[in-house]
């Protein structure tokens, strides 16, 4: 399993943002499987669907991050379980499963978000 990956690039999406969570495996892993109760070690890139602008990337900080899935946005809670270590998955997350509708006080409220997530480990 080659974990010496580089930061992914996300092509600008075409058409309107989907209303439902979209889960797309780019690379299927062959390691341990993430569960809803897992703590995950991930590298990720996040961009806004409409603008294609990056808003966050663990790659830019030079290290992965570890989180209990239960503390992350619903799109991750629904989109990561079943993913296996070594995998790379793209999630397109509508506002209802991200930071809520516009006006909720978060800079990303009301926005559909695209994440590319590399699963490095699960606990």
UniProtKB/TrEMBL annotation:
Protein's UniProt keywords contain Nucleotide-binding: yes
Matching SUPFAM superfamilies: FKBP-like (SSF54534)
Pfam families: FKBP_C
Keyword ATP-binding: yes
GO molecular function, one term: ATP binding
Domain of life of the source: Bacteria
Enzyme Commission code: 5.2.1.8
Catalytic activity: [protein]-peptidylproline (omega=180) = [protein]-peptidylproline (omega=0)
Keyword set, alphabetical order: ATP-binding, Isomerase, Nucleotide-binding, Rotamase
Family from the record: Belongs to the FKBP-type PPIase family.
UniProt-recorded name of the protein: Peptidyl-prolyl cis-trans isomerase
